[in-house]
Design a protein that fits this description.
Blueprint (H helix, E strand, L loop, with lengths): L1 H8 L2 H24 L8 H21 L18 H23 L3 H33 L7 H21 L3 H27 L11
Helix pairs in contact: 1-5, 2-3, 2-4, 3-6, 4-5, 4-7, 5-6, 5-7
């Protein structure tokens, strides 16, 4: 991961694509959270998560202005990195998680949406807690003007909140969360492979994980 990020941060245009892609994914996450909201029974934590994910998307967009590049006003496919793996990552995780929950909890409708929100968001927060600190380390090493420290702090808080919500949802949630994390890990690896190929790495398997 760090090898890939070093190559990304070293190139202004690629770095802009990376920031735009992270912004796209944060925005997609916020929209997913909002789509899972119940018309009546929507708690303050869920509202907070949606608002903060939207803020992350905005913040990452603003960071692009610190770099010498243009053409990143929107989420055009050509302005993103990772191709369909980036564009469909969260949707695929949501679909696969929903199938798992439906099978193991026998939930439908709004209850299924809420459970999917819990497990998908948990998996994303676990990943964010790994990805953003590595990215910040690389930014610091390159003396980049881009900073993501505020996102790191908020994502740490999100993870703690998701664990609390999952404890309330089901006492055996950790057993199921392990399966969801396996699903996410496969999707994340496919995403990294797509990015690595785009960056010209011939053998992704030769790239160290960190």
């Amino acid at each position: 991961m760090k090898t890939i990020l070093n190559k990304i941060v070293a190139d202004q245009i690629i770095h802009c694509k990376w920031l735009n892609t992270l912004s796209f994914m944060e925005n997609a996450g916020a929209r997913k959270i909002s789509a899972c909201e119940d018309k009546v029974k929507t708690g303050i934590i869920q509202l907070k998560h949606a608002a903060e994910e939207h803020r992350h998307a905005y913040y990452l967009k603003k960071q692009i202005a610190k770099l010498d590049c243009s053409g990143f006003d929107y989420y055009e496919p050509s302005s993103l990195i990772g191709g369909q793996s980036s564009q469909q990552y969260l949707h695929r995780l949501d679909v696969k998680t929903s199938r798992y929950i439906k099978e193991h909890f026998n939930l439908y409708g709004q209850e299924l949406k809420y459970a999917a929100y819990l497990f998908v968001t948990y998996a994303i927060e676990v990943r964010a807690d790994e990805l953003y600190p590595i990215y910040q380390d690389v930014l610091t090493e390159h003396a980049s003007k881009v900073v993501v420290k505020s996102i790191i702090l908020e994502e740490e808080g999100h993870l703690e909140e998701m664990i609390n919500q999952l404890n309330d949802f089901d006492p055996s949630w950790e057993k199921h969360a392990k399966e969801i994390l396996l699903i996410e890990s496969e999707l994340f690896d496919n995403w990294l492979i797509s990015i690595a190929k785009e960056l010209g790495f011939n053998e992704y398997s030769a790239i160290p994980a960190s």
